[in-house]
C-alpha cells in the first residue's frame, strides 16, 4: 500500500520496483478501469469489447466477479501503434 509523504503531498511514495515489475521504458505497470480506458482511447464500451473479441484491442483481466481491468502499458502500446500507423 502506498504511503503519502505528507498531508500536503497528494503523490504517493511507492517502493522501488524489481525488474519483473517494470514495464516499457522502466515505468511501472498499472491496472486501469474501463472509465479510464474509454477516456484514453476515445471509444465506447461496446466498441472496446467488440475489438477485444476481434483481437484488435488489449484484453481485460478479471480481478474479481465484477471488476475488469486493463494493463496500462498494453493500452498505451495500442494507442502508440494507432498513432504510428496514422502518422
Descriptive overview:
This protein has 87 residues and is of the alpha+beta class. The protein has a single domain (17-86), classed as Orthogonal Bundle (Recoverin, domain 1). The protein has three helices and five strands, in the order E-E-E-H-H-E-E-H. The longest helix is centred in the last third of the chain and has 15 residues, at 72-86.
Explain the layout of strands and helices.
Layout: E1 3-4, E2 12-13, E3 31-32, H1 34-41, H2 45-54, E4 61-64, E5 67-71, H3 72-86
Antiparallel strand pairs: 1-2, 3-5, 4-5
Task: Give the key terms.
about 90 residues, alpha+beta, Recoverin, domain 1, 3-stranded antiparallel sheet, two-stranded antiparallel ribbon, 3 helices
Query: What's the assembly state of these chains?
Result: single chain
What is the overall silhouette?
globular
N-to-C CA distance: 40 Å
Could you give the count of β-strands? 5
Weakly predicted, low-confidence segments:
8-21
Task: Please give the share of residues in helix.
Answer: 25-40%
SSE class: alpha+beta
Continuous helix count: 3
How many individual domains? Answer: 1
From the alpha-carbon coordinates, what is the Rg to the nearest angstrom? 15 Å
What is the residue-mean pLDDT, rounded to a whole number?
81
**CATH architecture assignment name:** Orthogonal Bundle
Main beta sheet, described? 3 strands, antiparallel
The largest beta-sheet arranges its strands as: 3-5-4
Order of helices and strands: EEEHHEEH
At the fold tier of CATH, the topology name is: Recoverin, domain 1
Which CATH class is shown?
Answer: Mainly Alpha
Percentage beta strand: 15-25%
Amino acid at each position: 500500500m502506498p504511503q503519502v509523504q505528507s498531508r500536503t503531498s497528494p503523490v504517493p511514495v511507492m517502493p522501488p520496483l524489481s525488474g519483473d515489475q517494470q514495464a516499457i521504458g522502466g515505468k511501472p505497470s498499472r491496472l486501469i478501469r474501463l472509465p479510464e480506458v474509454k477516456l484514453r482511447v476515445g471509444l465506447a464500451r461496446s466498441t472496446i469489447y467488440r475489438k477485444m473479441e476481434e483481437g484488435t484491442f488489449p484484453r481485460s483481466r478479471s480481478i474479481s466477479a465484477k471488476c475488469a481491468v486493463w494493463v496500462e502499458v498494453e493500452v498505451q502500446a495500442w494507442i502508440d501503434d494507432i498513432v504510428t500507423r496514422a502518422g
